[in-house]
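Record type: monomer structure entry
Structure origin: computed from sequence
Chain ID: A
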Amino acid sequence: MKILGQNPNNNDSYEAEAGEVDEDFIEKMSMFDMADEAIQKMINKLNISADAKHLLYKISGSTIRVGKFIMKVGRKIIDFVCKIYDEFPQATFGAILGAIAGVLVASIPIIGIVLGAIVTPLAVAFGLVTGASHDFKNKNLDRKIAEANAQFSPLNA
């Protein structure tokens, strides 16, 4: 199945081929645990710069086309991050985002191309600022990050 993406910074288009994507995956990617308003409130409450908040909003608007479906992958990533942040409040938002983004960028080529220019600097900045490496010793958090990555596995080329 053809996957199309567009870099939000320079509008370059990217195309990849993945195996057949089933309807279950499309349905899961279309359902969000948190409402848009709740995500917006959580981002607004973060103790980060306005530029970083703007980047988070930009990520949440990133989409890809999988066959005839348009998927809000950026919104799904932010949804995962916010859900995990609710479950693990001692972990920093940036550390969770950086972990999920790093795994996604490393494992899914089309998402890495589409979101790489946005996610990579954001993840690096959060990682440097937060220094929250001790939070990743929590095995439940590691498991949640792995679950988030597994959700995107049908998009692997």
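Annotation 1: Residues 1 and 19 are 6 Å apart (CA to CA).
Annotation 2: The radius of gyration is 15 Å.
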